[in-house]
Amino acid sequence: MKVAQKVAIVTGGGAGIGAALAAALAAAGARVVVADLDETAAMAVSDRINADYPAATVGAGADAADTVAIQGLIALAERKFGLVDLYFANAGVLGASGLDAAERDWDQSLEVNLRAHIRAAQLLVPQWLERGGGYFVSTASAAGLLTQIGSATYSVSKHAAVGFAEWLNITYGDKGIRVSCLCPMGVNTKLLYAGQDSGEQLGAAATRAVTSAGDILEPAQVADIVLDAMATEEFLILPHPQVLDMYRHKGSDYDRWLRGMRRYQSSLLAENP
């Protein structure tokens, strides 16, 4: 799908991958609602983009996991630009490390990393079916394919996000609805270093696991890869190609992979006693 002249909503657009996606979409000729829980950040990103591409974006403060807020974003997009063609479910949280994560931590991770995607799809897919097309892009993580050392809430919710994106693709892919799932490893964002800054041993191990596994990409690099993949309507978007090798290794011998992950975790914890 070509994104030029399309109308997009990007959640988590106030920084990181979301901000880079909004900028890349505007540069490619799309019109974009930049949404973030931090309204000030969303407005700042929108203003920066509009300085280069006048009137290409509008910023909005919104909770990406709240149905009423999503309805508001859709209404804003329609009022400013027209019917929504593209939705980037990009907002995400790391969550707590370990089995002792509180109920509120599980709730937050599942709300933002999974149910936000479900609620947006519930609102948009029926419209897209009537119109004959639409594109849903889910930001998950390599942790949704390979499991994140450290944070159970992050790993489980990202696995679920991948599963939901797969289900959308299978169920509606022959009905004009395009679905892609973004699964990067290390990207130079605040989220990458949240575990390291948490003061928890497992959190520090989580950051170390990602930063030592491959290159740390800039958000703009990831955004360009996403738009390239959308042009050919690829489902699984892997900015770090080695993730596919790791995923194949996992599937070829699950028990061996689990043993290797336990050894890897032990070595990381030994580095951060």
Word description of this protein:
With 273 residues, the chain is an alpha/beta fold. It has a single domain (7-271), classed as NAD(P)-binding Rossmann-like Domain (Rossmann fold). The chain contains ten helices and seven strands. It has helices at residues 16-27, 39-52, 67-80, 103-131, 143-146, 152-172, 201-211, 219-231, 242-252, 254-271, and strands at residues 7-10, 31-36, 57-61, 86-89, 134-139, 177-182, 236-237. The protein has a seven-stranded parallel β-sheet with strand order 3-2-1-4-5-6-7, sandwiched between helices. The longest helix is centred in the middle third of the chain and has 29 residues, at 103-131.
Topology of this structure?
Layout: E1 7-10, H1 16-27, E2 31-36, H2 39-52, E3 57-61, H3 67-80, E4 86-89, H4 103-131, E5 134-139, H5 143-146, H6 152-172, E6 177-182, H7 201-211, H8 219-231, E7 236-237, H9 242-252, H10 254-271
Parallel strand pairs: 1-2, 1-4, 2-3, 4-5, 5-6, 6-7
Helix pairs in contact: 1-2, 1-8, 4-6, 7-10, 9-10
Please summarize what this structure is.
With 273 residues, the chain is of the alpha/beta class.
Rg over C-alpha atoms, rounded to the nearest angstrom: 18 Å
**CATH level 1 name:** Alpha Beta
Count every helix, treating DSSP H or I runs of 4 or more residues as helices.
Answer: 10
The count of domains is 1
Distance between the termini: 49 Å
Number of strands: 7
Features:
seven-stranded parallel β-sheet; 273 residues; Rossmann fold; 10 helices; alpha/beta; 7 strands
